[in-house]
């Protein structure tokens, strides 16, 4: 079921989105070789709570796949880790790329966004992967307008990624967002059946291309959370919470 937000609800979501964007900025300023993902998680949680919000991901219930609730305040996914990396004692190294996914809950609403950052000096191909992933998001939201269909967003993302020689992850998708972190509709990053629902003004969506350097295939590690590329190649992630307006979509978590 599509959930249309009122103007008052959207104003509340703007506040949650601002917390998310500022948290990502704080993390970006901290990322460097030698820092652990657990340190990044601590900094993020402290900042989110200082803003009067709650980390959306910490304790996220995973009853659907029979694994422990998510232990971190952020998802920190390095190199071949696609999404849902658990913060820990692993130190970042020069040349790594790291995807940070942040969610914040404030005044009854969630905000959600992700970025992939370079650690020190990275390869040209790693930078190209990050850039293509970011741009694929913007290609997609050109179609996040009243009267278009979800498949129009998905197709634009897929076309741009494939044209640039990369692949989109299929097992994990974007989603509606609001009072719940994950609401309808689902928003795949590729064309598939069941995407015929129309986009309407007032919909709030978390659109999030996950792009692999090699094959689109992935697997889940034994911890039940962390998703990695099947071929061990790099992956990048770019996400914003947006609201569909009468004009172009409004980004509620804009950082860059």
Tags for this model:
globular; Creatine Amidinohydrolase; 5-stranded antiparallel β-sheet; about 260 residues; 4-stranded antiparallel β-sheet; 4 helices; alpha+beta
Tell me about this structure:
It is built from four helices and 15 strands. It has 256 residues and is α+β, with helices and mostly antiparallel strands. The chain has a single domain, classed as Creatine Amidinohydrolase (Alpha-Beta Complex). The strands form four sheets. The protein has a five-stranded antiparallel β-sheet with strand order 8-7-9-14-15. Strands 1, 2, 4 and 5 form a four-stranded antiparallel β-sheet that branches. The longest helix is centred in the N-terminal third of the chain and has 24 residues, at 7-30. The chain is globular. The protein starts with 6 loop residues before the first helix and ends in a 5-residue tail after the last strand.
């Amino acid at each position: 079921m599509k959930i249309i937000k009122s103007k008052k609800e959207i104003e509340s979501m703007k506040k949650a989105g601002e917390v998310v964007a500022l948290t990502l900025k704080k993390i970006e300023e901290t990322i460097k070789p030698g820092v652990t993902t657990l340190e990044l998680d601590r900094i993020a949680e402290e900042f989110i709570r200082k803003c009067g919000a709650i980390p959306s991901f910490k304790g996220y219930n995973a009853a659907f796949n029979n694994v422990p609730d998510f232990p971190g305040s952020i998802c920190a996914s390095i190199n071949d880790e696609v999404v849902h990396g658990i913060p820990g004692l692993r130190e970042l190294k020069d040349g790594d790329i790291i995807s940070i996914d942040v969610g914040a809950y404030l005044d009854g609403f969630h905000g959600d966004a992700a970025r992939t950052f370079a650690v020190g000096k990275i390869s040209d191909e790693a930078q190209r992967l990050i850039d293509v992933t970011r741009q694929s998001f913007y290609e997609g939201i050109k179609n996040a307008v009243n009267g278009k269909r979800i498949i129009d967003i998905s197709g634009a993302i897929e076309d741009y990624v494939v044209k640039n020689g990369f692949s989109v992850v299929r097992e994990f998708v974007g989603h509606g967002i609001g009072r719940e972190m994950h609401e309808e509709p689902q928003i795949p990053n590729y064309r598939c059946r069941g995407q015929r629902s129309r986009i309407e003004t007032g919909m709030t969506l978390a659109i999030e291309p996950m792009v692999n350097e090699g094959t689109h295939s992935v697997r889940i590690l034994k911890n039940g959370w962390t998703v990695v590329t099947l071929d061990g190649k790099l992956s990048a992630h770019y996400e914003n919470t947006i609201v569909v307006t009468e004009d172009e979509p409004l980004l509620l978590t804009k950082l860059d």
